[in-house]
Amino acid sequence: MRVERDLECATRDGCVLRADRYRPEGDRELPTLLLRTPYDRRRGHYSVYAHPAWYARQGFNVVVQDVRGRFASDGEFAPFLQEGPDGYDAVEWAARLPGASGAVAMYGQSYTGYAQLAAAAERPPHLVAIAPAVTSPDPYRWLYEGGALRLAFAATWAAVLGVGEATRRGDAAAAAALAAALAAPEAWLRPGRPAELEPVARAVPWYRDWVTRQDPADPYWEARDLTARLASIEVPVLLVGGWYDIFLDGTLAAFEVLRQRDPVGAPTELLLGPWAHAPWGDVVGDVDVGPATGPRSVSVDREQVDFLRRAAGTAPADADAPPVRYCVMFDRQSRRTSANWPPAAAAARLHLRSDGLANTATGDGRLSLTPPGPEPPDVYAYDPLMPVRTIGGHAAAHPDLAPLGAADQRPRQQSPEVLVYTGDPVADRVVIAGEVELELFLASTGTSADVAARLSVVRTSGEAINVADGIARVRTGLSGTAARDQPLRVLVSLRASAFALAPGERLRLDLTGGAFPHFDSNPQASAGDTGSAAPPTPHTHLVFHTEAAPSALTVAVLEGTVPTGRDTAHNRL
Fold it and tell me: Residue 348: its pLDDT value, please?
């Protein structure tokens, strides 16, 4: 193995980008793998992927380049803006390096995945394939979900980038302050504090844009959104997503656009597994989500190399292989394939039912296929200064601040601020695969509200392991009697998932007024006439489930049958 350091690539505007290259010994010309990263080319992304040396041993020259304005590369870093033109120039430069065959493919996850999509949309002639993993083409989806700010991710990611930005400016004090903040994020990421957090906003001025530009139609986001340009990509694409990844919705949105291209000239493949943002494996959070028996989940590195070899022409194409490969969590037959995503499945509409006391897991909330009658609403209070803390879920932040992945939800489900609806035990094995959606009829004493919903599998041991979650921020518009008589219809996407229930296990939905610190804490009140921020205010929320307001959860049943649900006498309003 030969390693060449600090190779210089001059972009069209004269900026010098620096890279390292890993090459097998010998004089044979090989295809090139290009990874463009803001996280230091010397690390080679090996905290997520196999080391670049391993990829070189698979028959590639591997080039790892610092993007503009990061580490050894010149220029100023402007997130998302420069990756298209710079990516084009880097591809064409890498194709001409000594020992290169001329064919260049790209790989990488998160920001390096976005950088691939941006470069491919510019259509450099020597690019033959890309493999973007756990990423989204739309930066607004990076920072917001359902109208709520992904606070823990936005703040900690900006702080990580800010350490490098401050160091490059020679501001040792700012770099030290950010490093200290990252070491103890709970000291500055607290409910009720403004999202424009210091010292992050001082070190990285674009952080304030992220947290104040809340409208997806803002020209700021439109200038960075690649979604409309994906259809112009002409090379094969392998998308990789994870059930617990923060960007899963963006990955699937990209697949929806890319799959409509010519399937022969530019095939699109999709690999979905039981992963969070990083690293990837069967143990996600506190739980082994792999199958009880049979093969373990896929190796992303090997799947990726197989795809890149086919795209580079060093391995035969497999025209009959299904384009979608996905893993079913908790299933002995975990590996599945499909011609599309989501796979064909039967929709099951599970109605939220109760006698008016669904608070906590010991309440009377239940999930039922039978529509509700004249049932009383469920009521909970929510204080944005004392929010119910998240446990697990889809996030990408400091693990001590916002644990991610799968976790037992029972500690949260003991809070009266959480409504809990549990289904009957399944008699036989059930597999659910597809989108999970909640239709909710809500009233509030406040003028703004968040609905944070989470779906879990309740094991026979009693553990409630989360498998899907989502949030929606709404303006309620009405309060008091008017809101009670005209509840607001709220749609909450819990995103996609694929999981199995063993005999005796149950589905459980819980919902509450927020998901701090994964998301910022909604003050639940409108800003004043002066435009000043509204003070955080406790408010009461009502969830209706009647014939006129039939709140319900919809899941996609791939195999098996969901129980009808218990029907008991209900108290009248």
Answer: 97
Position 213 pLDDT exceeds 70: yes
Per-residue burial over 470-507, b if 16 or more Cβ lie within 10 Å, else e, is bbbbbebebeeeebeeebbebebbbbbbbbbbbeebbb
For 2-140+222-338, CATH number out of 2.70.70.10, 3.40.50.1820, 3.40.190.10, 2.40.50.100 equals: 3.40.50.1820
- Mean pLDDT over 166-175 rounds to 90
Q: What pLDDT shows up at residue 20? A: 98
∠ CA 565-568-571 to the nearest 5 degrees?
130
CATH code linked to domain 346-559: 2.60.120.260
pTM above 0.90, yes or no: yes
* pLDDT of the residue at 529: 39
- The DSSP output letter for 386 is S
Q: The tokens of 132 are what? A: 């973007």
Please give, one letter per residue, the 3-state secondary structure of 549-564: CECEEEEEEEECCCCC
User: Do 487 and 544 contact (CB within 8 A), yes or no?
Assistant: yes
CB distance 216 to 144 below 8 Å: yes
Q: Single out the residue of 143, 287, 152 nearest to residue 216, CA to CA.
A: 143
In this predicted structure, the answer to whether residue 528 has a pLDDT above a threshold of 60 is no
Residues 6+ apart with CB under 8 A from 199: 162, 174, 177, 178, 181
